[in-house]
């Protein structure tokens, strides 16, 4: 069985493409050294269009009357709050522009307002060297170092010194256990269950949080804070797998790139990259579940535990819940051998 790999590598050669979804501008050249937070490409995004029905909004009976009461012509720019049209009388009713923009059309008592587009910016995401550039579209960045991938991220990128929380990795991080030593650091901790913890970490100006898990109701808060968050195991209360903890421990106090931008449709995981002065080998993104592989169990009661794959069972195995599935025997860190469905295993390498 071929399955995607979750990388936990002490040293690898990483190659990442950074592509624009539309034609734009690449801001670096081949051979340039980039930091993870550098803007390496950008593009102008099209603005939106709003149709404002003056006739209906101001209750004009005739279309011609609506046109007569409009205060701007096609091609003119307006600012949010400007009066686009108004009725007569002692206390006139008015229609205001809901946004900045340009009037690009007036038709049958309606104003078509074009709002300005924004600028799309692409960050490098890793620290390394630009090795390829596709003009107007994107680039490829390569670097060497340790790579650890998670399962969820809040879409932000930062760089900081890796700091491991003093508490055991399975404990909950709370507002009370945050301390001033975490300021400007990327902090590895266990579980978070309270939005106050995430907000307090923002106020403390942490550079990022690497968590084993958090409760699912914190997603909205996690997306709003100003620093990146990566979950290594998922939602619920799941302990950090030992293989990941060991790798973090050997790299504490090093600078770490925390890239919480990800795309499940492209099998792109949120990842952590620790640049190292050594040359690694490229890693494969897919692997076969075979004897001797290091795997991680993704569901209870062994969720988050790393294990050694002892054997893939032939055919289908009857589980205690009555289902017949493809399964494997795995040896946990306690030396206990258990049977787990193949669908509930991740390859760690």
Please provide a written account of the structure:
This protein is mainly β. It folds into three domains: 2-14 and 143-275, Glucose Oxidase, domain 1 (3-Layer(bba) Sandwich); 49-114, OB fold (Dihydrolipoamide Acetyltransferase, E2P) (Beta Barrel); 289-348, SH3 type barrels, CATH 2.30.30.30. 10% of the residues lie in helices and 44% in strands. The chain has five helices and 29 strands. The strands form six sheets. Strands 2, 4, 13, 14, 15, 16, 17, 18, 19, 20 and 21 form an eleven-stranded mixed β-sheet that branches. The protein is elongated. The two termini are 16 Å apart.
Question: What best-fitting shape do the alpha-carbon axes yield?
Answer: elongated
User: What is the CATH superfamily of the largest domain?
Assistant: Phosphohistidine domain
| CATH fold-level label of the largest domain | Glucose Oxidase, domain 1
Structural class estimated from helices and strands: mainly beta
* Mean pLDDT figure: 92
Q: From the coordinates shown, what is the CATH architecture of the largest domain?
A: 3-Layer(bba) Sandwich
Please tally the helical runs, counting DSSP H or I stretches of 4 or more residues: 5
Taking all Cα atoms into account, the compactness measure Rg is 27 Å
* Biggest sheet overview: 11 strands, mixed
Q: Gap between N and C termini, in Å? A: 16 Å
Query: How many strands?
Result: 29
The helix fraction, in percent, is under 10%
Q: Which CATH class of the largest domain?
A: Alpha Beta
Low-confidence stretches: none
- Please state roughly what percent of the residues sit in beta strands, choosing from under 5%, 5-15%, 15-25%, 25-35%, 35-45% or over 45%: 35-45%
User: Into how many domains do the coordinates divide?
Assistant: 3
